[in-house]
Amino acid sequence: MKAEGTRELPYPAYAHKYNPKTLHKLVDPLLRVDEHERAQIMECVRVAQLCVDHRAKHRPVMSEVVTMLGMAASKG
Q1: pTM, entire model
Q2: What is the pLDDT of residues 20-32, one digit of tens each?
Q3: Domain boundaries, the chain
Q4: What phi-psi label fits residue 32: left (phi over 0), alpha (psi between -120 and 50 degrees) or beta?
């Protein structure tokens, strides 16, 4: 994925760039997310980071991904 004016990163590296301090770079400011939504987005980013771990045995299976995303959606 390549943003204007940046060099292209492999998808796993792109996913691992984000954390609570840099999340604002990922979310369009026009969305005006509240703290609850911000927490849900960060949880989705965390799940994405798990899915692209360079160690295959550390990646969640799809049923675990579904569970984690379901829990993120139901929080609050």
Answers
A1: 0.73
A2: 788 778 788 898 8
A3: 11-74
A4: left
